[in-house]
Structure formats: C-alpha cells, structure tokens
Amino acid sequence: MELIPSIQTYDWGKCGDASKVAVLFKNIKPDFNIEPHKPYAELWMGTHVNGPSFVKHLEKSLYDIVTEQPSYLGNCVQDKFGNNLPYLLKVLSIQKALSIQVHPSKEHAEKLHAEQPKIYKDPNHKPE
C-alpha cells in the first residue's frame, strides 16, 4: 500500500525546495505547492495523531485502515500497541541547530501527558 506522509513545518527546517522533506513530498504528491519561504522540517510516516499518514487512493488514514483491518499489524503488535504502529518514521531537513531533547520512558510520558497535556502533548516515549 502506498502511503502519503505528513509534513511538519517547524522553524528550524530548510525552506522551499532546498528542503529534502518538501522535495520528497512533492514526488509523492505532484500537486503539492512548495512555498519558497516556508520551512519544511519533518516528513512523518505512521499513525501519530498530530501527523497521520494516509493511504493513497483510499482517502483514509493509516490509523483507520489498521483499525478496520487489525490483521495488517499482526496479533503481537495489535496486542501491545492497539491500532498504532510502534514507531514513527521521520525524515528531517535541518537548517538551524536543534536543541538537545530528552525523552521520557513510556510510563513517565503517559504520566506527564495525563498531568500536563498542554506541555507534554504526547503520551509516547521516543526510543530513537
């Protein structure tokens, strides 16, 4: 199945067609308009709620597809992660230096997200 990823436009990304993220996305979606002064920082492939992938020609998110057909993930993945992939594939196109990031464990991430969702927007760990 062909996927259409999501793009994140953080200010540290490369702008316009200097961004590999924008160029890759345009190769997938030829009608995509690359704006010359817009930063294209990350291309995501997965089931993340803030940047879901879509299945080409079906107009459905990958999350919806695996919810409808859990056998695509297999029993082990389904039992442990539900209808989400256990990873988020990212392609980065970096113009400015990034700050060091420390990611909590899954258990701690869930706790922080439950207590302060405006600050900790994601209940997932980031085993990178």
Q: How does this model look, in words?
A:
The protein is built from four helices and eight strands. With 128 residues, the chain is of the alpha+beta class. The chain has two domains: 3-97, Jelly Rolls (Sandwich), CATH 2.60.120.10; 101-128, no CATH class. 15% of the residues are buried. This is Phosphomannose isomerase type I catalytic domain-containing protein. Residues 105-128 are annotated as: Disordered. Residues 2-128 form the Phosphomannose isomerase type I catalytic domain. InterPro entries: Mannose-6-P_Isomerase, Pmannose_isomerase-type1_CS, PMI_typeI_cat, RmlC-like_jellyroll, RmlC_Cupin_sf.
State the main characteristics.
4 helices; alpha+beta; 3-stranded antiparallel beta sheet; 26% helix; Jelly Rolls; 128 residues
The rounded distance between the terminal residues' Cα atoms is: 25 Å
- Please give the radius of gyration in angstroms: 16 Å
Look up the CATH topology of the largest domain: Jelly Rolls
- Spatial strand sequence of the major β-sheet: 1-6-7
Question: How big a fraction of the residues is strand?
Answer: 15-25%
Number of domains: 2
How do the helices and strands follow one another from N- to C-terminus?
EEEHEEEEHHEH
Q: What is the average per-residue confidence, as pLDDT, rounded to a whole number? A: 89
User: What is the helix content?
Assistant: 25-40%
Largest sheet: 3 strands, antiparallel
The coarse overall form would be flat
